[in-house]
Write a structure and sequence with these properties.
The chain is mainly α and 463 residues long. It is built from 16 helices and three strands.
């Protein structure tokens, strides 16, 4: 009888009886959306195996969504909660501002490089063990940050914090690939964006509130407690999603060969670079918007926070439209292409406005352009991840590592360029966004060649 609900994670955790050849009785798993909007895995079970109720399935799907959402939200929390405390850290540790800024760079670098390590580990040893180890190291590193006596020690453990926190990012994507295929994967990534997209908005607010009651060290205490809570949640509720027969058995050489094979795949690389370039346009906005909104257009910090929040809501809303309305009705490549086109048009409009083509423009038109650009990311990001990971079921951890590292590295290169002409012009921000957006379109067309994909979702590569 049909089972409308137990997730594939539950099936791995609770073994299904097997036949004499060891094959699981009750195969063909397909993803179906639940009433709550969270995809669940529907599996045809063998006779005599009771079917889980729809309510149980829905709860399991929501629980997995919340756990993975928490893991993907932890890195932006680690970065952005700390931002309001930077001036205080400078004084408390008697270090110049440039040195304290390195604590942010170290954490970001750790997040980028850590994914290259943890991703292949999860393909070899499963998802749970590397994730739990990463979370334990994250808690330890964050606790040391809270008591660090010097800026140099703080920089070192922020690097370790980023390396360990990368486990949550890379393994979350790999778990989604383990559980879902095609349109359902795109729906899940859109749902995940609803949770993880809130983190960068609320993190500075939380950090500011914490500073009202304690000093900058209290922020790391809070992050330590969050890390402990997430570790316990993962240990209890996130079951293994990669069965032993699908794991890689090789060492470092095998992992490097797997990554080289992924990069040699034109389609995977196209989606990876296109998504990373779109992400770089987003990074350019995040880096430049405080100066553009406050210094150039004279808005207050409160107005900047309001606009930042509105833009984030736009991104989340379009992500939900993508997952709830477009996926299954419109091919992923069409939705992705439309998103990249909108980003390009918005970036071009921002360049024309900031360069004076339309004369002096106020904050409202620029804010509108930024809102459109940010919102269109809700079409670009989940669909590039989905189409890339559809090619890589045999190496989801390594593929997730390449996707994450590429996004962070290209974003980190683009971010400093927005200030190349100083803080009194927004033209560099718009130029970076136009270049990144148009380059993403070119990569999408030349490498992914969407007109050759008749089925809407990409077929996996052979092992």
């Amino acid at each position: 009888m049909p089972d409308s609900g137990a997730s594939r994670a539950q099936q791995v955790h609770d073994p299904i009886p097997t036949n004499s050849e060891g094959a699981a009785l009750g195969a063909q798993a397909t993803a179906t959306p639940t009433a709550a909007g969270v995809p669940a895995i529907s599996t045809t079970m063998a006779p005599g195996i009771p079917a889980a109720s729809t309510t149980t399935a829905r709860r399991a799907g929501i629980l997995v969504t919340l756990v993975l959402g928490g893991l993907t939200a932890l890195p932006p929390l680690s970065m952005d909660m700390y931002l309001p405390a930077l001036p205080e850290v400078t004084g408390a540790l008697h270090a110049p501002a440039a040195t304290v800024q390195l604590t942010l760079t170290a954490c970001l670098t750790g997040m980028a490089l850590g994914q290259l390590v943890v991703g292949p580990m999860s393909d070899r040893w499963g998802r749970r063990t590397p994730l739990l180890l990463g979370m334990i190291v994250y808690v330890f590193a964050t606790a040391i940050c809270a008591i660090a006596p010097t800026a140099e020690l703080l920089i070192g453990f922020r690097l370790l914090q980023g390396l360990a926190g990368a486990a949550g990012i890379v393994i979350s994507r790999a778990v989604v690939r383990d559980l879902y295929d095609g349109d359902e994967m795109a729906r899940f990534f859109s749902t995940l964006m609803l949770i993880s997209g809130v983190a960068p908005v609320v993190a500075p607010v939380i950090g500011g509130q914490v500073l009202q009651f304690t000093d900058w060290r209290g922020i790391f205490v809070v992050l330590t407690l969050v890390g402990v809570l997430l570790t316990l949640v993962v240990w209890k509720w996130l079951h293994e999603t990669l069965p032993p027969e699908r794991r890689h058995t090789g060492g470092v050489g095998d992992a490097l060969r797997t990554m080289r094979g992924l990069l040699a795949d034109r389609v995977f690389t196209g989606y990876m670079i296109a998504g990373s370039l779109a992400f770089a346009a987003l990074f350019a906005y995040v880096s430049a918007s405080p100066f553009v909104v406050q210094e150039i257009y004279g808005a207050s910090p409160q107005t900047f926070s309001l606009l930042f929040g509105i833009n984030s809501i736009g991104l989340i809303t379009v992500g939900q439209i993508n997952g709830k309305l477009l996926v299954g009705r419109v091919s992923l490549d069409k939705a992705l292409g439309f998103g990249l086109a909108v980003i390009s048009v918005a970036a071009a409009a921002l360049l024309l406005m900031t360069s004076g083509v339309f004369g002096e423009v106020g904050l409202l038109p620029v804010a509108a352009g930024l809102f459109v650009l940010m919102s269109a990311m809700g079409l670009a990001m989940p669909n590039t991840n989905t189409q890339a990971l559809m090619r890589t079921k045999h190496a989801a951890g390594s593929a997730s590592a390449l996707l994450g590292t590429s996004q962070f590295l290209i974003g980190a290169i683009a971010s400093p360029l927005v200030g190349i002409a100083g803080e009194q012009t927004a033209v560099p921000m718009a130029v970076v966004q136009v270049v990144c957006a148009l380059s993403a379109v070119v990569c999408f067309l030349l490498l992914c060649r969407p007109w050759q994909n008749k089925g809407g979702t990409r077929q996996p590569l052979p092992k």
